[in-house]
Write a structure and sequence with these properties.
about 475 residues; alpha+beta; Uridine Diphospho-n-acetylenolpyruvylglucosamine Reductase, domain 2; Uridine Diphospho-n-acetylenolpyruvylglucosamine Reductase, domain 3; 3 domains; nine-stranded antiparallel beta sheet; 20 strands; oxidoreductase; FAD-binding PCMH-type domain-containing protein; flavoprotein; FAD
Length: about 475
Amino acid sequence: MADTVNTPLREALHSVLADCTLSRGSEEFKQANSSYFSAFANELTPAYIVQPSSPEQVTSLVHALRPHLLTGDCRIAVRGTGHTPFASSANIQDGITVDLRGLKGIFVDEDKSNVEIAVGETWESVYTELEKHDLTVAGARDARIGVGGFILGGGLSIHSSKLGFACDSVTEFKIVLSSGELARANSSENPGLWWALKGGLNNFGIVTSFKMKTLKSGSIWGGVTYYMPEAFPNLLERACDFVHNETDSDTHVMCSAGYGFGHQAATCVMYHTRGIENAPSLQRFTSLGPQIEQMNTMRVSTQLGFSEELAKFSTSGKRQFWTSLTIKPDVSLMEAFYARWQETLDQVKDADGFIFSFGFHPLTKSLLESSAKAGGNAMAIPALDGPLFVVLINPIWSSTSDDGRILAAVEKLVTDLRQMAEKKGLLHRYIFTNYGFQNDDIIVGYGAESSQRLQETSVRYDPDGIFQKGVPGGFKLSSKRL
């Protein structure tokens, strides 16, 4: 395959990271470029993949590429572990992909109150290391995903009802700015940037690590309860009761309907983070039937154990994506959503290897209140807006020949759901960033005031708009300077 990068750019790249640069055609390049979560990202082919292993190498890379990014001769993608499923989020056709998986390190402070985590880590490695110190953090529910994109998108944790979004536990970011400077962002040093990075994605620079507040680790009671599909309407009623009336902030739940291998089922993933077995707050779910008891996994374990369980629910390299909307809880609306999801399922379930899930993830009032107390974030959801449900739709299939019709059917489904919710006055502006679809205007969903503040932060720290123009992947701020 021809090299599409011009000679001055190639020389600039090799002048700083020759030993860390993979070229098309090499076996290492093929392995790195086929290791994304979704097949769509695997199908893009950059000209080079650069794999720095230290923040200093990232600064050298940005310094070397900056002139070419300014002229438009170069465009880059920034990859953590590559879990966002749409193609261009963390890979780029004919450009340069900066693969950060080599940035490793988990360092617990002497007083054990904070931990610094390099962006090349996964939550599995974080939880594994922290449990050696009897600690944990408000990280992802799925062990296999990377830390960087999850935090920069906000993130939901099993501890979210008590602590807010995962990003609300971040006390400091280290970031390479467009100037090539390695900067810190915390509540006292670059505080506006600290706020913006909590949900602001890859719009301000390349984050190399972040610090999070730690928690004492301990036994957690939870797992997955499976129900026959006819239980789903009752599950919706109990989920609404939970978000409106439950005051136990040590609970976390996710309710879903799913199709796979010719069968349907309903599930409730639930946890009590203080380890109370069958806690009163969860009995509305554990008492619901009919259950598929032989599949239930309720038990006592740790955050690592439960995150490893959820990691088994997905497989890398599939044709798959997420799309999402946010609504105010309403049983009749959610039942109408379920009926419309069933209609879409009937249209596309004959696709080879088709799996289809449809779930509700609560944003409780206590979550939003805790988020505000922690200093707020770029998503800027007022506590008074709660409770809310993040609606997640996730299709998976095997054949490229089914791409067009599945994408069209699911996009139509989401459009219809948004119209149904808007008609009842129950659609919320926010789209959960980590589950966003490639066509979503995520930043607009943060609200006008937050969007303006993010633009002003971008102008201050990236006045030339390099991380919009030169890094096109992901959910972007406008490249127009204020």
